[in-house]
Specification:
27% strand, 274 residues, 36% helix, 3-stranded antiparallel beta sheet, 10 helices
């Protein structure tokens, strides 16, 4: 009877999705679903107070519709989420991922300071209190739930570091199915640093395209949810960010002609197949 039940469970596509682990990647190239990085779910805002959103339609170029409820997410939240997913990539989705704050801060190349510990915990708590609904157009796949299922911390380890535990919703593996995932160069992201939010956003955005299309400056301003009110100021920051992306090896060159941005990738960041 147990064997029959196991075989039936294995044959059920829904159960396979919930049991499926994330696609394989290594420490240097990490998987991230395209719907999360092709729009304004993780914004480039930094100086202003975070907004509280309810069923917000997120601007996106991916083949998905995204509704978000929760405190505004930014690039530091994306970095933390990617680090957590990477730590748990070899475990069945939904199992506890246990780590120390020291390990994660080192992985993200944040400054070893008490402020970084506070920032890390705030990011995890913010990711937990979220509601994201992502539906893929023309497919039966999608996801509705939180970006983090639950979070806890307990006794210190032998080195005196507090151990933290995070679990992801099993169904979130749905976002990593099909040709829907980009392998992101983690070292490049760390080279950019924590304060260059626009450059971080552009890095993930252009990493998800084999041959990036040309977009207007205004469109990029809208997609990244920039806090720059003047397009002229945003354009200047955009140029600086493009130069950085060339310096770290993502882009070969770029040009802004008639306020349209054209870029050429150095190489294709391979997507994962289901």
């Amino acid at each position: 009877m147990k064997t029959a039940a196991a075989l039936q469970k294995k044959a059920d596509p829904a159960q396979q999705i919930l049991q499926m682990g994330f696609p394989n990647w290594d420490e240097d190239r990490r998987g991230v679903p395209n719907p999360l990085i092709r729009g304004g779910l993780f914004t480039t805002r930094m100086s202003t107070k975070r907004m509280s959103l309810k069923s917000e339609q997120i601007a996106s170029l991916s083949n998905s519709d995204i509704l978000y409820t929760g405190e505004e997410l930014r690039q530091d939240d994306l970095t933390v989420w990617m680090s957590i997913v990477n730590l748990g990539r070899d475990k069945p989705v939904g199992e506890p991922c246990i780590f120390t704050a020291y390990r994660m801060i080192k992985d993200m190349k944040w400054r070893m300071h008490v402020d970084s510990y506070t920032r890390l915990r705030a990011c995890i708590e913010r990711l937990k209190v979220t509601s994201v609904k992502i539906t893929t157009k023309g497919q039966d796949s999608g996801y509705a739930g939180s970006l983090i299922r639950d979070f806890a911390f307990n006794n210190v380890d032998e080195a005196g570091n507090t151990r933290w535990m995070v679990r992801l919703e099993p169904a979130i593996a749905n976002l990593f199915l099909f040709e829907n995932t980009t392998l992101l160069e983690w070292e490049q992201r760390k080279q950019i640093g924590t304060r260059a939010a626009l450059t971080l956003w552009l890095h993930t955005f252009y990493s998800s395209h084999r041959e990036p299309l040309s977009y207007s400056v205004t469109k990029l301003h809208e997609l990244c949810k920039s806090e720059e009110k003047k397009i002229a100021n945003f354009r200047a920051r955009l140029r600086n960010s493009m130069e950085t992306l060339i310096a770290i090896g993502l882009l070969e060159n770029y040009a802004i002609t008639s306020d349209v941005v054209h870029v050429k990738r150095v190489r294709f960041v391979q997507r994962l197949n289901a």
